[in-house]
Write a structure and sequence with these properties.
Largest sheet: 6 strands, antiparallel
Oligomer: single chain
Structural class: alpha+beta
Strand content: 15-25%
Order of helices and strands: EEEHEEEHHHEHEHHEHE
Strand order of the largest sheet: 3-2-1-4-5-6
Number of strands: 10
Shape: elongated
Number of helices: 8
Length: 313
């Protein structure tokens, strides 16, 4: 006589539609029975997302008079659905709600609700992250506006210098006579520009105006773009001298206009950010991804980006 180890019935997902909460097994679960129930991840969702969920599962599962209140899906493919329906009490001549266990669906129908609930969980998780980021960003902007402007000025000066260090290395040859001397002079000028501090000003507005009005000289590469071969547009008249204080075209408020190397560095950082954003995509199963696409979440949250969900092969 042979014996087999029974599968311990554990919930993969628990959905509470009365209190707008959902619990789901963590993504690290690879089989239907290798997790601990206590590790279920809990999230809350709003009424708008709940309405979309009801719309997706249809009237078979939920109506205004016969509501789906709780749904659990287990590792053995079974489910538990608790519903409430309206009944009429002839004695009191009034309607009342009666809870009952709904058991009339097929396994395929129950699995569809499970996958739709998984989609709801994925959306709620991303929404929670988005909202937290937005709140943090708004708070940071409000509290650190002036300090951030000040720190930016300090940081950009250092970045302009560090990104152009290679220009003055001994083994870098001039592409035209005096090029390296210009880079040395430009870097010296950048070092000499003093960044004001908040303590120097009685009010934040004056401090901010000073920061905004601060200018940098354009570097030798940008100078040669402005004045090819050190000539004006006619190609005959000599251009103003490099870093001429009276030539407004050679001075700018913006670091990426002043420094060509800093601009290139910033573009690389943007590409790295885009790569990190892509690598931060949320990988989900195809059956859940298809449901998220059908849900058209952007109609609920205009700033939501469904494209960050990608298929987990």
């Amino acid at each position: 006589m042979t014996s087999s180890t029974p599968i311990i019935r554990k919930p993969l997902l628990q959905l509470d539609l009365v209190n707008n909460t959902i619990l789901q097994a963590p993504n690290s679960v690879t089989t239907l029975s290798d997790f601990n129930t206590s590790t279920l991840q809990r999230l809350e969702f709003d009424d708008a997302l709940k309405t979309k969920f009801f719309e997706m599962i249809g009237d078979f599962w939920h109506t205004a008079e016969d509501t789906l209140d709780f749904f659990s899906y287990y590792n053995d493919g079974t489910y538990m659905a608790q519903r409430s329906r309206q009944k009429y009490d002839f004695e009191s001549e009034s309607l009342y709600w009666s809870e009952y266990q709904f058991k009339s669906s097929t396994q395929e129908q129950a699995e569809q609700v499970y996958n739709t609930a998984r989609a709801l969980f994925a959306i709620a998780a991303k929404r929670k992250t988005d909202v937290a980021f937005q709140k943090t960003e708004a708070l940071s902007k409000e509290i650190n506006f002036f300090e951030a402007k000040w720190m930016k000025r300090l940081r950009e000066r250092q970045l302009m210098l560090s990104s152009s260090d290679w220009r003055v290395l001994p083994d870098v040859e001039d592409s035209y006579t005096g090029e390296k001397d210009r880079w040395i002079a430009w870097r010296a000028k950048i070092r000499s520009i003093a960044v004001p501090t908040p303590e120097q000003y009685d009010d934040k507005l004056a401090f901010a105006q000073t920061l905004f009005n601060q200018v940098y000289p354009i570097d030798p590469k940008n100078y040669r773009k402005l004045y090819p071969n050190d000539m004006l547009e006619d190609g005959v008249t000599p251009a103003p001298a490099f870093m001429d204080p009276d030539d407004a075209d050679q001075w700018t408020n913006y670091d990426d206009d002043a420094s060509s190397d800093f601009l290139n560095s910033r573009m690389i950082n943007k590409l790295m950010y885009a790569k990190n954003r892509a690598s931060g995509s949320r990988r989900i199963k195809k059956e859940v991804l298809d449901i998220i696409k059908l849900m058209e979440v952007e109609s609920i949250y205009p700033d939501f980006d469904s494209s960050l969900f990608v298929e987990d092969n």
